[in-house]
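Researcher: Next sequence.
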Amino acid sequence: MNILAVEPFFSGSHKAFLKGLEKYSRHNIIPINLSYKGRKWRMHGNSVVLAGMTQEVEEEIDLLLVSSMTNLPAFLSLTNPRFAEIPKVMYMHENQFTQPMPEGEERDQTYCYLNYLSMLSADRLIFSSEFHRNDFLKALPEFLENYPDDKYYYPVDKIADKSIVLYPGLDLKRFDAQVDQRNENENPVIVWNQRWQFDRNPAMFFRVLNRLNDIDLTFDLILAGDTQHEKPEEFEKAWERYGRHITHFGYVEDRENYSRLLHSGDIVVSTATYEFFCVAIMEAIYCGCHPLVPN
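Model: Next structure:
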């Protein structure tokens, strides 16, 4: 089977998911993707470029797989009639209805509606966790209340009926070659390996660390994770306060070095306010870190 995998947001967990699918699927995965350029622009502007990229795809496509950042109706109209009759599957890494907003920023319903239309256009929706699916289905009727005239709720059941849960695959074998190094630690090593962004709630993470430090508890830190977004000031303050106890600071490009860091950590922490299936936390657990995560 030839599967065209469309990813307008080729970064982080989206990137890991697609690369894992390419590597391990028994089907022929044909990826077209765009690099990270901001959520709003990708949801608005991705379809024109992606539709153009399909002209280079010569294979007969049996299934269309798109991510939740795709403007599916626009993509289908710009490529019509090529993909009109084949099954269309959308993988819901996240949704625009419940994703937290930065402080002082209101949710723009435009992107909820783009997400909503794309879900209606897909034949099957795959959510990354049961919590994610339930969280979205709870928020959808509240969104439909915003309609200024006739309010149609039948799409809620329609979307629910074509939704399933399938956890993203994890490529963990790449961590097996690394030897466990945590026995060499003089102090407990606490790991942060998620995005440096507000929805990961770094303020709470460092607030707890500061309290531990205030009562003279000693620990070392590995502060890794994706840093291409705007860096919260908490990380710079942490460098000033804990510099000599920070064994790594910043994104890790090299896979071997990343594996070495995870195999030297004792505890991995998430304080995220918005998370459905954190690949980074799973990787750290696989490498032997004890998880402290939200309920």
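Model: The chain has a mean pLDDT of 92. The two ends are 39 Å apart (CA to CA).
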